[in-house]
Amino acid sequence: MTKQLANSVQLYQVKTNLTIFGIGNSSNGALGRVHCQIQATTSTYKQCTSFVLLKDVTDRIPITRVPLASVLIPSQIQLADPKYNEPSYIDLLIVAELFFTLLRGEHVTLSDSITLQNTVFGWVIAGRVNSNENTETNIQCLTAITQPDEDLNTLLRKLWKLEEHNDMTIQNSKITACDKFYRETTRRDTD
Q: Residues 15, 71: one domain?
C-alpha cells in the first residue's frame, strides 16, 4: 500500500524493519505497516489483512493509454476498474495468500492475448494489447517477496543474551580452572 493512501484514509501506522525483494533481487525498505479491512463494492467480500507501506507500489499501469476500441468488453461485464485503459498508479497490492479467495470461477477469453477474470471486486482484464509504441523496456512486475527483519531491539536483546551466556561460560571455566589450581597448589599447615 502506498503511504499516501494510508495517510489519506488515516490508517494507524506501525514502524517496521522490513525489506521487500523483487525482480533481479532489487530491494526496498518498507516505510511502515498497517492492518485494515478491505471490502468490495460489488459483493459482500470483506477481509482483514496487513499491508506494508511503500512510497510507490509500481509505476503507472498500463504504460500507455489503451484505445477503448482495441478491447471490446461485453456489455454485461462490470469491470473492477472502469478506467483500466488509462495509465494510473497502483495504490494497493493484495497479498498472494488472499489471491485465490478473490477469484470467482468465470473467465472470458477475448483474444489470444486478452482474458477477463471475474473477482470479488468485479472483472479484471489481463494481457497484451498491440501498440505502436515500443514498450519492451517498460515491463511492469507486481510480484514481490517480503523478508521480515527482526526489530532492532529484539536483535540487540538476543545479542546481549548470547554475550551474557558466553561471558558466564568463560567465567565458569575460569573459576573452575582457578579452583583446580588452588586445590592442586595450596596446602594447609597443620599448626
A: yes
